[in-house]
Amino acid sequence: MDQDEEGGTDAHFQNKSIRSFLWTGLTVKVEDRRTKQQKAILSNVDGMVTEGELMAVMGPSGSGKSTLLQVLSQRRRFPTVSADGLLYLNGVAADATEFRRMSAYVEQEDALIGSLTVRETLNFAARLSTPAASKAERLRRVAALLAAFGLSDVADDLIGTTIKKGVSGGQKRRVSVAAQLVTGPRILFLDEPTSGLDSAAAFEVISFLRLVAERYRLIVIASIHQPATSTFMMCNKLLLLCQGHIAYSGPPDAIARHFRASDLSIPDMMNPAEFALDFVNTDFARSRDEAERQVGQVTSSWYISEQKRITDGEMSDELARSSMGVEVDVDPAPISTPSMLSVVATLAHRSFVKSYRDVVVYGIRVVMYLGLALLMGTVWLRLDPNQSNIPAFVSAIFFGGAFMSFMAVAYIPAFLEDYATFREERANGLYGPCPFLLANFLVGVPYLFCITLVFSLAEYWLSNFRPAAGGFFTWVMWLFLDLIAAESLVVLVTSAFPIFVVALAGTAFVNGLWMCVGGSLRPVDGLNPFWRYAFHYIDYQSYVFQGMMHNEFDRRTYSCQLLPGDQCQCSYDTVLKDQCMIRGDAIPASYGLGHEPAAHAVPVMIAIIAAYRILAWLVLDRRRA
């Protein structure tokens, strides 16, 4: 049935080219960091799934389930991993590039943007994956998926953020699968799609996976941990692993017969999946020898079993079928590649929707910086331009720039959410790091300008900095560049270390370093050669401090202190000393900033911002999925 009641078409999702997917002799080894020896994660694993089938990959923790999925999906992530074995589509050796183009991988954790609705999530996925389709066609495909996955009633509900609750956990998993299915894959891999769900939600997810496999004739392979009996029996095939070896491969309802043949009967009223997992779990063996004996018993029972003979026969028949030239065309429908401009526009649109809906992205930062501006403006309230207030002006300049830069760490959670989505979409071949970072930059710039303007309108005039329009807008320019550089630093560090605590600590450390060598806490001339030449000249905060100091002091004078008897005491010796005044440009000079204007620093700031973004691109480009 290619046409649903709403007029949407699901022909795009139908698999009409891939009849079978099988693998033989799959062995995966990784180098042990301690012993420097090769350690086998998977050993001689075979398997086959045909169109319309759902295979469950089961086994205790550390049995190799996730590794098997990553190797089968051609998404190996570690260069130290070596894999041997053969993969076949319709009995023909699979090409890695073509295979990745016709398959999709759903991560264990939902890589969804919480501030989007279910419909928007699928619509953006469709825009990224099917650029040649018209808007009407994309909407029809999204409507067909919403109906097929039972999501029509929650189509306009948010996925859910840390502040606002959204759809349920089971519905999120269905959205994750649907977002990958909209790309039109023929083979779908899922890493523990029931993780974190209760038994009812897990059954719901597996039921929909089987429905999707049957309806669209897809090949679905999912790792599952500790399923309920009803969930277990929903699968067409089971691949049970024990320390990287096959313990069973075949229909779930035949596993009881297999264990009986091995003199291990499953007790009545016991979940077969639970019994099987307990049987192959060697984690609680009393000794290494006992664990090895248990693994040996499991694997030997499989190799002499009737079920293995049946499975091997099915695989041999499929390979023989292809050798006779029967239905070996595995080339899927041609896929159009979106242009860079199209991808950037789609990602920017999605990021913009997220940015104004999710207060965590920029809303909280606007309030935070406004509160900081009012705090600073009332602490440094209406400073008179006299000698005693010069240190206060300097400290206000330093604190404003440094604290605004430091608090850019508040952007880390929002970027981590974007990074998780990018990682999954990139793994499925939708786009690379360049459009991702470019869209991120374009969306962030106007918000950072608004933050700068809100902060400056309150703090600049309350503290009585140089009362001139030129002075105000120059102040805004420096703080704006400061915030862009700070957010670019966050993007770089978080791209390199995409773990919240590590990214937070790394960004805080770098900002602390920039504060120390920026020339505000200690004059530039006082820094030892290492800190000065290694870090000071690449410190964006130093250029912000320099520019704001010149902006405030170069065009302003300050009154000296009057002593009894109308004597004048000036702490800075300038040409205005006879007038009991201080010429302001002497103050930046005392910090080693010189008398020249700081306009030359603007190109340097732009170069630093560009360097941070380019380095982030290099990091993401090197970290291939």
TrEMBL record:
Organism, scientific name: Cladosporium halotolerans
Keyword Nucleotide-binding: yes
Main localisation: membrane
GO molecular function annotation: ABC-type transporter activity; ATP binding; ATP hydrolysis activity
Name listed for the protein in its UniProt record: ABC transporter domain-containing protein
TM region(s), chain numbering: 359-381, 393-416, 437-462, 468-492, 499-521, 598-620
Record keywords, A-Z: ATP-binding, Membrane, Nucleotide-binding, Transmembrane, Transmembrane helix, Transport
Record keyword Zinc-finger present: no
PANTHER family given in the database record: ABC TRANSPORTER G FAMILY MEMBER 11 (PTHR48042:SF11)
